Amino acid sequence: MACVTTEPLLPPSPRFPLGTDPLGRDALCAFLSSLPNTLLAQATAISVSATFLVVVVLSLISERSEKLADFVLELLNGFPRLPLFVFLSLITSLTPFQVGLLIGLLASVRYAMGLMERAKEIVREEFSLASFASGADRLWVLRRHVLPHLWGLIVRSSLIVGAVAVQAEVGLGTLGLESPSSQGIGQLIYLLLTTPGALQTLAGLLQALTVSIAAASLSALPFALRSSLKPLRSKGR
Amino acid sequence: MKPLAAFFSIMIILALSYSIARYGLGNPFGGLGSNGFLTEEQVKALEEAYGLKGDALTGFLNFLKSLFEGGPVSSIYSKASEEVLVKPFLLTLAVISLASLSSFLLVSASFLLRPESLKLIGAFAFVPEYLYAVLFLITAWNFGWPRPVASASLDKALAYFVIELLAISSRLAHLMEELNAELEKRDFVEFWKAVGASEISIRKVKLSVALKAMLAFALTLVAEALERSVIIEYLIDFAGIGYFLFTSVVEVDVGLASTGFVMIAVPSYLLVKVASSIRGEIEWLA
Q: Among A161, A227, B218, B282, which is most exposed with the fewest C-beta within 10 angstroms?
């Protein structure tokens, strides 16, 4: 989206509702054109996380893969994310898509561990044992008994991971460490921070608050959806 | 905690720190040195710390050894990186720990005296810390508090403490609310109700049962706050470990950046591990 460019940090007006940014662009236009990148980070993290969590549950298909999954999860649980991204900036600038990808994997580990425990419990329940006794294999039990019981939890965990991705992506953008070719909404705060006096203008204030509130609202998504996801979780059981 | 997995993970963190510094930048030390940015002694010290003239394994072992001897030399401060970073690290840890402890007490007291207030406090659990930090940034530039200059002064520490208190207490309150709902179904609560114990006595019992789970969660929150110090400290200009990691990356001080990364990553990783093992011991939470 090409944004109108004029004088920097003009106050809000009907033509420029958020004023202009330190580069002289229509701030609302700049915000709206970078928002898809932040949403891309969120969507990528949610999809990667959901896929990862399903793969973790499916690892119960054999004892060997279960042990391997347990070990990998134990290894990655608590692995640092944000400091790693910042440190990584020494050699490369991450794009929102890459942030979403990495967060989708690293932030899912904690939820994957809890999910694995629940999945193991379901495999030990009577209805699963009855299926085994009647000749069903592990994959069948995982598909028919375990996954349907865990969908709600998988969706909820993935949404939380999506919220973490928004926070990380906006955070990296705020630090000015994102790839210049693809930047999310955090870059607006970075511009304000690196322009002397920008935060003392009405336009600067409004832009900083808009970006922060937008990021907080995107992070609030899993909490807003929580009540509707609870019945989904209990439906299967 | 599984010590073997923890050991492997810490080695991975250290290897990452080493590899990014050694391979990612080609030979930055020589390059920077030729530009006159580093003195000959500094280039030599960094080459020694990263073992750039030997093979990768020897270099990594050299790097580990250098971490025990004060860390690679910082090109900006011209001294061992740990010498520069230990104080900021302790400062950050002190502020976060204090905020965490205060949140713990605040949530416990709220649960005992006014359990309905937990819902209100917990409603802010989704708000990212940097929203609070941006608010302080605005007050700093418009009202002069905290002062908009990078330092580890008392006003900065207080602002940082308030940010962490708001963030950690809302998340702890949210957890306590969930734990309370879970404990409500337990037999012992039914028993105390049946014998006519007062509401506050029952809440005291519930709190003592939930204490371990809260402690585990608080440790995880401390680890997360330590990780997010990179953004928060930059926004409020607090000269803690996160601020130093960020500025060292921007100013390409490889020695300081790799030590800073290790100083944040390893403790936060260990805190999560300790929290996981505490949580694993709680039978009723399983």
A: A227
